[in-house]
């Protein structure tokens, strides 16, 4: 039987990488021939989590062959997936995003729920299948939920995510608050990234009516330090705008300790940003209380496009 | 709180109608404000089942308003759904078909599995939520699975469907084989349908590469009797071909007792049908062992388009 590849989105984050490993573990225990993979290099937060629980990175793939059987985690949009996904055979999806630019030729397993993290859904799937969760897997699931919900402080967090974190912390036998802060802080060490890398660490394409845009986000514990690199970040953003013909590029520097963001917005449609939030001064604005791209940035931009 | 409408596809069949009722029952027990609805008139098989278990038909709706919260069962493709679905707010989908021409603006519950019937998935959802299934609901679920799997004889049937039928028959307290045959036969009384109605009872649009096509299907216990109406059926088919600019219209008359079909194929692309199956004589051909549009007709036509 052919091996089914399990992978998450490009520019992988902790939920995407951990989802692939966690679902591989579940399906192997259910007797399936599956293998976790990844579409890109892990960020420092993810490396910290894997290192902490002594788990190896899934194998990097460079697109998928026609007819390859695959399972998508933490995404469904083809534009965020492996190259060649249009001609792969999608057997299963486990996700917590909207369904968009996704289709299959055949019936499949599709499991999405509007919760804060894919791993909150995976926890349910372990329970439904009566499969025990070991300490390591619990630690990875916990890391993913802490990452996606910024230690339960993001508005994307649901009651189910919170319950899952407490349950998984018990299984993993760790103090999730201390561990979570340490993990999130590991992800905020951005000093050795180039400006190009910074704006690509977690960057999503999105459409604002007929306008092409990108919203990138980084987590930090120190906004002023990141803003010392404003000029080179803007230059890198402008390069992407020119190359891709973007109308708007928003880069959110999110302070995960105090739950605020500093945004840099460039492009000929910055008026959308200003209608959505506030006046830009020298291309930048402080957004108090804003931490979630999905809930607090994208929909507000869409409404004002 | 606004009432969320639950409905299945147009040209409703037994699974679509029963799924709406069965999911309404589950979600109401979980405290949600939901209401089952339907997009079209029920066929005789469905009427027989509802009558047998003394359950009322869900309310007929005529499209949905912008922003209406909805739950889709037994379908996801917008072209098969209520008019106006593009601007509704889709909260949940429970389905067993491929995902196609479907998208949402927000994250949602999406539960699809590649099984023979939506109600096989709904049975799992009752169990996962610890909600008891009463005799009536079990009877409706059983009817739907019998209908979609032609009493477990269709190749779309999975081991899970078979297990579900046996379990539900016990709860409903009925002999599923005797009941199922009676229900399927009730659906084969097509004598008082006009030819236009016959070709619309269960008719799906589908694309064969760039060719526009429709595949309609009726169940019968007597193919020769149905074929006495061949001339008027062909005239009705030709009218739809002209009106919609179809390239191929296939009408499958399926003998549910002996598990065969007689097909009538019209349109300028009947060569696709002939490559897929066999030579047409006077626009018709006998297809031994063919009972499933999804598994035995549509994919074979697609391969030969």
Word description of this protein:
- The structure is a homodimer.
- Chain A is of the alpha/beta class and about 300 residues long.
- Chain A has eleven helices and eleven strands.
- In chain A, the strands form two sheets. Chain A has a six-stranded parallel β-sheet with strand order 3-2-1-4-5-6.
- In chain A, β1 (about 5), α1 and β2 (about 35-40) form a beta-alpha-beta unit.
- The longest helix of chain A is centred in the N-terminal third of the chain and has 16 residues, at about 15-30.
- Chain A is globular, with a radius of gyration of 19 Å.
- β6 (about 110) of chain A pairs antiparallel with β6 (about 110) of chain B, so a sheet runs across the interface.
Topology:
Two copies of one chain form a homodimer.
Chain A: E1 4-7, H1 14-29, E2 34-38, H2 44-52, E3 59-60, E4 69-73, E5 89-95, E6 109-112, H3 118-128, H4 135-149, H5 159-172, H6 176-187, H7 195-200, E7 203-208, E8 211-220, H8 223-227, H9 230-244, E9 248-255, E10 260-266, H10 270-276, E11 284-288, H11 293-303
Parallel strand pairs in A: 1-2, 1-4, 2-3, 4-5, 5-6, 8-9
Antiparallel strand pairs in A: 7-8, 9-10, 10-11
